[in-house]
Amino acid sequence: MVTAVPFVAELHVLRNPDELFRAAAEYVVAEAGAAVRDRGRFVIALSGGSTPRGLFETLGSDGFRGRASWEAWHVFWGDERAVPSDDERSNYRTAKVALLDRVPIPRVHVHRVRGEMPLAESAAAYEREITDLLGPSPAFDLVLLGVGADGHTASLFPGDPALDENRRLVVPSVEASNVPRVTFTLRLINSARAATFLATGADKAPMVRRAARPTPGEKPVPAGRVALASGNLHWFLTPDAAAELPTISA
Ligand code: 6PG
Q1: Cα of 152 to ligand 1 centre, how many Å?
Q2: Atom number of ligand 1 nearest to Cα 80
Q3: What is the pLDDT of residues 142-164, one digit of tens each?
Q4: Which of 70, 124, 140, 194 is the most buried (most CB within 10 A)?
Q5: Is ligand 1 within 6 A of the CB of residue 172?
Q6: Cβ(138) to ligand 1 under 6 A?
Q7: In what order do the strands lie in the sheet with 10-13?
Q8: Ligand 1 centre from 244 Cα, in Å?
């Protein structure tokens, strides 16, 4: 009988957000270096929201700017709000200000979701842009993810039919709480070679525990359904976000 291999994620609990962003930046540049060495390019999907801004700023800082082959990077977004690219809520804008304007990633390697287009059209066009670069079974080198206080990740919200989409790679998100969005599906996320969550704040602690260390029989939250088919999953956390994780017995 085949027994289910327990799903394991590597947890990194850092002392504070600055140390978290530095540790996560070290991890990203290491993944990027390996990808460029092995495949000649690094294809990453950035997460949205506010948490990753510190990571983007760290990657664009003097301490890291010289440590990546930026010309070999391709940047996508795991989700995007249906807003213009210069809108404060745009995940593209967040990354542009904090990172893309500070490092020499070729403009044609920055693959922005056309949030200003009708949602279904934007999702389909983005899926084509991904498969044009990565082929019909795309595997990102790294997918960055956040987690919401309701357990959502990317723009996969509890109860959203997109959670059970297993054919398409990018879909509209209809359950989005504040603004319509486009999101990677779990099929695309779980095909990645590596993925990492970043989470800070006590408000995330319950969902970090439910996602990273679910108890048997517990209904998985969207973030808990990230289970890479053959990649490595990491969580970079601050102590407040990790507070409900079971302590590792000595
Ligand atoms: C988005 C994100 C979303 C985010 C979480 C956490 O576009 O909102 O992709 O999944 O990662 O909501 O957001 P914060 O980092 O702002 O807490």
Answers
A1: 8
A2: 7
A3: 999 999 999 999 999 999 999 99
A4: 140
A5: no
A6: no
A7: 10-13, 232-237, 194-199, 142-145, 42-46, 73-77
A8: 20
The 10 Å Cβ neighbour count of residue 140 is 25
Tell me whether strands 232-237 and 10-13 are parallel, antiparallel or unpaired: parallel
155 Cα nearest atom in ligand 1:
10
Report whether 94 contacts 56 (CB < 8 A). Answer: yes
DSSP code of 88?
Answer: T
Q: Which atom of ligand 1 is nearest the CA belonging to 201?
A: 17
Task: Average the pLDDT over 1-12 and give the result.
Answer: 62
* Residues 169 and 131 sit within 8 Å (Cβ to Cβ): yes
**Ligand 1 pocket, 148 CB below 6 A?**
yes
Answer whether 0.85 is exceeded by the pTM. Answer: yes
CA of 153 to the centre of ligand 1 (A): 7
**pLDDT at position 5:** 43
Lowest mean pLDDT among 4-8, 125-129, 243-247: 4-8
pLDDT in tens, 47-98: 999 999 999 999 999 999 999 999 999 999 999 999 999 999 999 999 999 9
